[in-house]
From TrEMBL:
Subcellular location, record wording: Secreted
Single GO BP term: defense response to Gram-negative bacterium
Alphabetic keyword roster: Antibiotic, Antimicrobial, Disulfide bond, Glycoprotein, Immunity, Innate immunity, Secreted, Signal
Pfam families: LBP_BPI_CETP_C (PF02886)
Listed name of the protein: Bactericidal permeability-increasing protein
Role description: The cytotoxic action of BPI is limited to many species of Gram-negative bacteria; this specificity may be explained by a strong affinity of the very basic N-terminal half for the negatively charged lipopolysaccharides that are unique to the Gram-negative bacterial outer envelope.
Organism: Pelobates cultripes
One of the record's GO cellular component terms: extracellular space
SUPFAM superfamilies: Bactericidal permeability-increasing protein, BPI
GO molecular-function term, one example from the UniProt record: lipid binding
Assembly behavior: Monomer. Homodimer; disulfide-linked.
UniProt domain comment: The N- and C-terminal barrels adopt an identical fold despite having only 13% of conserved residues.
Length: 396
């Protein structure tokens, strides 16, 4: 077990150890004191650690390794090329430490022990892929159980994680298997529902030719509507989720059930609105595409069926069957477009820096989407670009 753990740790730390072996103080004898000091500090900090992210001058986190390297390269290049004269400020070691620790870099962490991995889902939300339990080292593999919880950027939650068992194939031909459970997908839906973002408004401006967005076109569906609104008025439809979406994963199939309230509103002058009708709506969607795009899982849905129930009307009798028929195509198109547009960029999966995935395959099993891939490791040679070109040729 100790051997397996040590081997994995070597892989995780290879990207920094290789570069830092070459970033030794003796190799910067032609540089100035500040450049040598930064090289020494980086060398000291590299032991069993990685740079998980940078904090930019604007206060945002930078996860892209190339952007991290560019930031360090710029800072280091400026230090290395300072003029050695009395008029040029020579940064003290404490100033360099401030840049590395306080201003830009968080404390370096032991990746295998903590695996603090945060992936940005969208502009407002992120996925926490931290470890739930310490890694389990078996004879043939290492098992990492990750949280896979979704929350607004900058916030953290101590969620209770259910015990989830993922069945792996008997014949394992891939290097890595990533199991995305129903809990993971439902965590995404729960977060969006809690943030009150699962809303859709259909207006006459969006659909200028839609007959179902004028009161005068509801004559046969709502017979008494003309008594309340003799002149045809613009309408809008508001669809709001009343429950968090529920995702179910079965062999070869992913379904999502969405429950919401559909309201038909008349838009009067001065932005005054009156409710004409409201109805509860349950829609069942099925995935028609599940695939990988880079490190993102891309899913799109089609509507299998939806049903209206519990009608309420402020204008008398409504022909429910005709209303469903009239709104059928437009609701399907509008809801699907909103959902699939939101999923277009995909769901980022957990990944280690400098590890690229090859030959991916997606299998839908009971309660889980199983992604199998091979890993390809690329040394962190980008870090070597921090060195000025005129000095790089002198390195051994």
């Amino acid at each position: 077990m100790e051997t397996a753990t040590r081997r994995l740790n070597d892989i995780l730390l290879a990207k920094t150890s290789y570069a830092m072996q070459r970033l030794k103080v003796r190799q910067y004898s032609q540089g100035n004191r500040a450049g040598r000091a930064m090289a020494a500090l980086l060398q000291k900090k590299q032991a069993q650690s990685k740079i998980p992210y940078l904090i930019s001058n604007e206060g945002t986190k930078i996860y892209n390794p190339k952007d991290i390297n560019d930031e360090l390269a710029n800072f280091y290049h400026n230090l290395y090329n300072l003029k050695q004269d009395s008029n040029t400020h020579q940064p003290q070691e404490t100033e360099i430490e401030h840049f590395l620790d306080l201003t830009h870099l968080p404390p370096l962490t032991r990746e295998l022990d903590t695996f603090q991995v945060i992936s940005q889902l969208d502009a407002k939300n992120e996925i926490d892929y931290s470890l739930v339990h310490p890694p389990r080292v078996e004879k043939t593999h290492i098992d990492l159980e990750l949280k896979g919880s979704v929350h607004p950027i900058g916030s953290s939650r101590n969620d209770l994680f259910p015990e989830i068992h993922i069945n792996l194939p008997n014949e394992r031909t891939s290097m890595v298997y990533i199991g995305l459970s129903e809990y993971f997908f439902n965590s995404i839906g729960k977060n969006y529902f809690t943030m009150n973002t699962l809303k859709l408004v259909l207006t006459h401006e969006q659909f200028p030719r839609a007959f179902w967005l004028r009161t005068g076109d509801y004559g046969t569906i709502i017979p008494k509507i003309e008594h309340h609104y003799p002149q045809s008025q613009a309408m809008k439809l508001e669809l709001t989720a009343t429950k968090a979406p529920m995702v179910t994963v079965t062999p070869q199939n992913i379904t999502m059930e969405m429950t919401g309230l559909l309201q038909g509103m008349v838009v009067l002058p001065y932005l005054v609105t009156n409710q004409v009708f409201s109805v509860n709506m349950v829609a069942t969607l099925i995935a028609d595409k599940v695939q990988l795009s880079g490190l993102n899982l891309v899913v799109s849905f089609v509507v299998e069926r939806y049903k209206f129930h519990e009608f309420k009307s402020s204008v008398g009798y409504i022909n429910v069957a005709e209303l469903e028929s009239a709104l059928d195509h437009s609701l399907r198109e509008s809801v699907l477009r909103e959902i699939n547009d939101g999923l277009q960029k995909g769901i980022p999966m957990p990944a280690l820096g400098n590890i690229s995935l090859q030959d991916p395959a997606v299998t839908i099993t009971q309660g889980c989407v199983l992604v199998s891939v091979d890993m390809f490791y690329t040394p962190w040679t980008e870090l070597m670009r921090m060195l000025p070109h005129k000095q790089y040729s002198h390195m051994t």
